[in-house]
Amino acid sequence: MTKLAQWLCGLALLGTAWATLALDPLGLHLPLPCQQVLWPFPVYLLVAFGCYSLATIGYRLATFNDCEAAAKELQEQIREARADLSRRGLKF
Known about the structure:
The protein has helices spanning 3-23, 32-38, 41-62, 68-87. The chain is an all-alpha fold. The protein has two domains: 1-29; 31-91. Keywords: Coiled coil, Endoplasmic reticulum, Isomerase, Membrane, Signal, Transmembrane, Transmembrane helix. The chain crosses the membrane at residues 43-62. Pathway: Protein modification; protein glycosylation.
């Protein structure tokens, strides 16, 4: 199962649970404090997901590996390409 499918299944499960409790089709008659917390719950989840996403991106940027060997190889290829193009008459 892909990550997208996992997230969509979790979202569908939470959405179904929220709709069942918030819209009360089963006649559960939740107390007023529970209803007051339940209605903005999707917004809380959206904010939490945004925080999680920002934290994940920040962590991945902080632990990003530099590829010095690949950078040197790329610079060498650029020098070779410029030299080849200079021999063929292109001016930079």
